[in-house]
Amino acid sequence: MITVYSKPACVQCTATTRALDAKGLDYNVIDLTEDDAAMSLVTELGYRQAPVVTFGEDHWSGFRPDLIARLAS
User: What does the record give as the function of this protein (predicted)?
Assistant: First the structure.
């Protein structure tokens, strides 16, 4: 399952979810401003910017169309 950890008014977050939609991928969005546990998880993974995308053991930060394309293949 793909999870996108996002923040309101985040341009890269919007670009990420639009790209996932365009590829027809299912995902969950978690708002980091409303979920302290999610914020802790993202911080523990070493990230300081949104979005953070997780898929199984894989994860990345920022808008990464190359990695989104890999998820779709």
Answer: Electron transport system for the ribonucleotide reductase system NrdEF.
Dist CA 51 CA 47 (whole Å): 9
Per-residue DSSP letter, 62: S
| Residues 13, 52 contacting (CB under 8 angstroms) | no
Class of domain 2-71: alpha beta
Q: What is the pLDDT of residues 15-72, one digit of tens each?
A: 999 999 999 999 999 999 999 999 999 999 999 999 999 999 999 999 999 999 999 8
Global confidence as pTM: 0.95
The number of C-alpha atoms within 13 Å of 2 and in the hemisphere containing its C-beta is 20
User: Domain boundaries in the chain?
Assistant: 2-71
Q: How many CA atoms lie within 13 A of 70 on its CB side?
A: 8
Q: Which amino acid is at 34?
A: E
Q: What is the mean pLDDT of residues 1-25?
A: 97
